[in-house]
Fold this sequence. Notes:
Blueprint: E1 2-5, H1 7-25, E2 30-36, H2 40-47, E3 54-64, E4 73-77, E5 88-96, H3 100-112, E6 116-125, E7 137-142, E8 147-148, E9 164-166, H4 174-184
Parallel strand pairs: 2-3, 2-5, 5-6, 6-7
Antiparallel strand pairs: 1-9, 3-4, 8-9
The structure holds xanthosine-5'-monophosphate (XMP).
Residues 38, 93-101, 146-148, 152-153, 190 line the site of xanthosine-5'-monophosphate.
Amino acid sequence: MDILIPADKIRQRVGELASQVAADYAGRPVTIVGVLTGCLMFLADLVRHLDLPLRIGLIQASSYRGERTTPGDLHIDPALLPDVRGRHILLLDDILDTGRTLAALCEHLRRVGVASLKVGVLLRKVGRQVVPFEPDYCGFEIPDAFVVGYGLDYNDEHRHLPDILILPGPSEDGETRRQGDKETRTQKEK
Ligand code: XMP
């Protein structure tokens, strides 16, 4: 697989994002909420730079694609989320693609009644967004390719790889793979 972003560049950029986060929160308590499962490496690396009063929570979002649901239906499972009412939240996700997941998660957290909400993504795919959504922190803008590594998976493989890599395959198959990926993600964490 071709490397899109090598591990040393990821490390450097995550450090820069952490400096921005630390400056913005300036000692205020923050709850970092990671979107399972792709956020795990990003979250673990980011928080270790942060000298702030900090809590960590996790949230799961699953795409449903079955006979009784339409493609893109999103199920949010907050079972692992601590009580975030009245807290300052930084929501972290691996990748901003269409924007549907983060838009829905933000709506969910606002409904719960958080004090403030910011969003950080490691990657943002250029030209893919269908929901207008501006993250507060973004590591890298990337082209429209299916990427794996550093938490990102294809069929639950490759998450452990330290670099971000482009999954090989015919480029015209991108949409098929994305749809297929959603199908394999039915009823399971993303
Ligand atoms: P949306 O479209 O709602 O989706 O912004 C974001 C979620 O889709 C998954 N996704 C990917 N996962 N490589 C992956 O491993 C990719 O290139 C990719 N593009 C989208 C991911 O779960 C993300 O949270």
